[in-house]
Design brief:
It contains four helices and 13 strands. It is an alpha/beta fold and 189 residues long. The strands form four sheets. Strands 4-3-2-7-10-12-13 form a seven-stranded mixed beta sheet, sandwiched between helices. Strands 1-11 form a two-stranded parallel ribbon. Its cofactor is Mg(2+).
Length: 189
């Protein structure tokens, strides 16, 4: 059964809104633990998103703890809604985080890191299919950002829900994931 991106956005936004805060925390921890099984830990530059709690995104705090415990360089972004560009900054003890008008927690400023230096990207999404295609919020920020990364950058989706069979309307320009991690399993594409 194929579903369009629009149908899937509606379905998964609703499914996420029905999760309790405890479920979000438990499942986010399970996702972080599953990440330990993926062969990415020899890399140094990890890009992570800070969750929009109002959208009940995967809480990446657990992953942040893993990364800092393993002494990795952690990179977070600031989005420019006029240009659809993301600027990436090294997360340090001095980084000030502020929510933008869309409730996205972002760094105020800091040490800028080029996309080409990033080796692993944790990608937010609403859902994904068994081929590694994802459905985000439809603004195109991550499609643009991922196209600027080196081709061998490892792209890992984080999801509370299992894969859809197939997403209808995937474009040539859509960059597929290498992995997607759910609380119960790791999908490899």
């Amino acid at each position: 059964m194929q579903s369009t991106k629009k149908e899937l956005r509606i379905k998964y936004k609703k499914l996420r809104q029905n999760l309790s805060e405890d479920q979000v925390e438990e499942m986010s921890l399970a996702v972080a633990n599953k990440l330990l099984t993926i062969p990415i830990w020899g890399k140094n530059y990890f890009h992570i998103f800070l969750p929009i709690s109002e959208h009940k995104e995967v809480n990446t705090e657990f992953i942040l703890h893993l990364l800092s415990g393993k002494d990795k360089d952690i990179i977070i972004s600031k989005s420019d809604f006029a240009t659809r560009n993301m600027t990436h900054f090294l997360l340090t003890d001095n980084t000030k985080i502020k929510k933008n008008e869309y409730n996205i927690p972002e760094p105020v400023d800091g040490i800028e890191i080029p996309s080409t230096k990033i080796e692993v990207v944790f990608v937010p999404l609403l859902t994904f299919d068994k081929k590694g295609h994802r459905v985000g919020y439809g603004k195109g920020f991550y499609d643009k950002f991922l196209s600027e990364c080196k081709p061998d950058a490892i792209k890992i989706g984080l999801s509370f829900f299992e894969a859809e069979e197939l997403i209808e309307g995937v474009f040539e320009g859509d960059i597929a994931l290498n992995y997607c991690v759910t609380p119960d399993r790791v999908y490899s594409f």
